[in-house]
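#struct-help
A.M.: can someone run this one for me? Single chain, 71 residues.
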Amino acid sequence: MSITSQLRLFVDVVQQGSFAKAASLNSMDNSSLSKQIKKLEESLGVQLLNRSTVHSRLPQQERTFWQRRIN
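D.P.: on it. Structure tokens below:
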């Protein structure tokens, strides 16, 4: 999968607030989506999301950047 496609998946995870919702939106299973986000993080050399069993959240610094880009 291209980095562009991985970035689109990342955006979907952030907008949906969970891997499960983003996976459903993209007709993927959770593990496939998670693997793509992990590959994106490895490519960029940064952890993009704080993961939990319930939610996926941007770290505070990235959340501030994201909100500035969206608004």
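A.M.: thanks! The chain has a mean pLDDT of 83.
D.P.: also worth noting: The longest strand covers residues 50-51.
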